[in-house]
Design goal:
The chain has 248 residues and is mainly alpha-helical. The chain has a single domain (7-242), classed as Tetracycline Repressor, domain 2 (Orthogonal Bundle). It contains 12 helices and no strands. Helix 5 (85-108) crosses helix 7, helix 6 (114-131) packs antiparallel against helix 9 (158-194) and helix 6 runs antiparallel to helix 12. The longest helix is centred in the C-terminal third of the chain and has 37 residues, at 158-194.
Length: 248
């Protein structure tokens, strides 16, 4: 709870959503450096940087200037890549969802028992979240903000109206992809119930519980903690499977 790019090869900056810190003078000078206008930055690097800034400050307090500084650009240059903050935040969520589906879909389509599928799907999703927790945190905290983005004033410029229409179309597509992601888990659970591997539970409620528990890993996971991401994935899979497997 992600095949257009290899997200796993990209570095992640891990910081708490509420972690405010001071930057030494020498570091501050480096942090605020700007690239010359003729230089470019990879779009995916901007999206990952936006996820890191959102994790530290949250949607309301994050500015395009903050994100631009993270990748050594001017705010003006950043607008060549993204029309506004909402468009960039949506790109963070799109990145996370595409990577999640890329991880989970092959497992869901494998020719194995539903119990094996579900365990592997849980572990794969949690592992992905621990590798890029800033994106995972955005998937938890920023959905509501994007769902509430208001349209421009009726007398707004045609350019603003067009940009908002494009944003709304992308947002609808994102929520459609989110439903597809959830349905991958749902169909596996339903198959397990039908085959007698899983208890006759309310599959829809179980999936909400399952994904809620998994998605919050991106919020609380710390790479310096006592357990690795892989270990957490295995242990959580054990716990979450216990609630659905039919015990003789």
């Amino acid at each position: 709870m992600f095949p257009l790019f290899d997200i796993l090869s990209l570095p992640t900056i891990i910081k708490s959503r509420f972690d405010y810190f001071e930057i030494p003078c020498s570091e501050s000078a480096r942090f605020l450096a700007r690239k010359p206008a003729e230089q470019t930055v990879n779009r995916e690097a901007i999206v990952l940087a936006a996820a890191d800034v959102l994790q530290r400050h949250g949607y309301a307090a994050t500015t395009m200037k903050d994100i631009a500084a993270q990748v050594s650009l001017t705010a003006g240059t950043l607008y060549h890549y993204f029309a506004n903050k909402d468009s960039l935040v949506l790109a963070v969520l799109e990145l996370g969802m595409d990577a999640g589906i890329a991880r989970i879909e092959p497992v869901a389509c494998a020719d194995v028992l539903p119990s094996t599928k579900l365990r592997r799907m849980i572990a794969a999703h949690i592992t992905g979240l621990t590798e890029h927790p800033a994106i995972g945190a955005a998937m938890v905290f920023e959905l509501k903000a994007l769902a509430q983005v208001a349209p421009p004033h009726i007398e707004a410029k045609p350019k603003d109206q067009s940009e908002f229409a494009s944003f709304v179309e992308r947002r609808q597509q994102f929520f459609k992809r989110r439903d597809e992601f959830e349905n991958l888990f749902l169909q596996v659970v339903k198959a397990g119930i039908a085959q007698g591997e899983f208890r006759p539970i309310d599959a829809a409620i179980y999936i909400k519980t399952l994904l809620g528990a998994q998605n919050w890993v991106g919020v609380w996971y710390r790479p310096e903690g006592r357990l690795s991401g892989a270990t957490i994935a295995v242990r959580m899979a054990d716990h979450l499977m216990y609630g659905v497997v039919a015990h003789s």
